[in-house]
Structure formats: structure tokens, C-alpha cells
Amino acid sequence: MILETARLTLAPLTVEDAPRIYPFLSDAEVMSNLDQEPIEDPDEVERRVAYQVEQMAADEAAYWSIRHTNSGLFLGYCEFIDFDRRHGRAEIRFVIARDNWGRGFGYEAVTALLAHAASEGLKSLVASVHIGDHGERLLEKLGFKPEGYLKGSVHRDGERRDRRLYGLAL
After folding, report:
1. pLDDT tens sequence across 24-74
2. Is the CB of residue 167 less than 8 Å from the CB of residue 124?
3. I need a labelling partner for 103 at 20 to 30 A (CA). Which of 71, 110, 112, 164 fits?
4. Helix (H) or strand (E) holding 46
């Protein structure tokens, strides 16, 4: 399903999006806020995106590309993963290109996803971010509430990092 906002088009991810996603997944600063190291191999990104497309076909997850509606510029991607259909919940994640941080694209995209999640019958969403990440402010602005603290839950760059869990009832 394609989702549209005033400035953005969120379309289901395709294998053809892999070259556009590679710059995100290979950017150490962008990836520092996620739970994995940057991916240097474009073929690995292509395999990962192909797997995500398979997950969508099996109705196990949902992934969208985020593009600027007027220019078609690829701004990022977002996803619902870890569906728990019995309890009506999923985890939401999103990534915006570093050169587009602070322009409200993340807020706009996630707002569209929240409306979509509610229309699909999801009852709650969870999100997880590194402590101090700008995503914390965004989630709180969208109504997410802190629900947990994971001390030292991620090992990155030779150090343990803390994460905060956020939840939102739809």
C-alpha cells in the first residue's frame, strides 16, 4: 500500500531500492543509532533488501521507501517488524538520510505509518532508540511513552550502549 503525506510518498520497498538504501546502511553516523555496524558491501545490502521483500510477501513485516513527492528524492525508509498479530503489535523503525535530518521528514513519515497501523488493526507499537538519539524527541513528540531502559544492551565501537524502549497505544 502506498501512503502519501503533504510532502512524502511512502511506497513498498522493492529490490530496485537497494542501491538507494546502500548509502544509509554504509554511513557510520546513520548506523551508529541502529544495532549493527555499517554494511560496506553493496551486494550484502541487495541481499538484505531482497530478504525484506520476501518478508513482506509472507506478511511477516512491512517496509517502505520514503521519497519526496515533488522531486522523487529518496529520503529514507521505514518499517514494521516483529509483528505479533495475536496481540496486535509491532516494532516501528525509520531511517532518514543524514543530510535531511531536522527537516521534519521523519515526523511526517511516522505520522503516516501510525495512521496506517491503526487502520490495519494494530493496537500498539514499540520503538527502541539509543539514549540521547534525536529519535527520542521525535517519538515523544508523536505520543510514544518511555516504557523501559536497557542498560548496556548494545555493543558498538568497543563500548556498551544503553537503549530506551518506547510504546504507543493506538
Report:
1. 889 887 877 777 788 999 999 999 999 999 999 999 999 999 999 999 999
2. yes
3. 164
4. helix 42-57
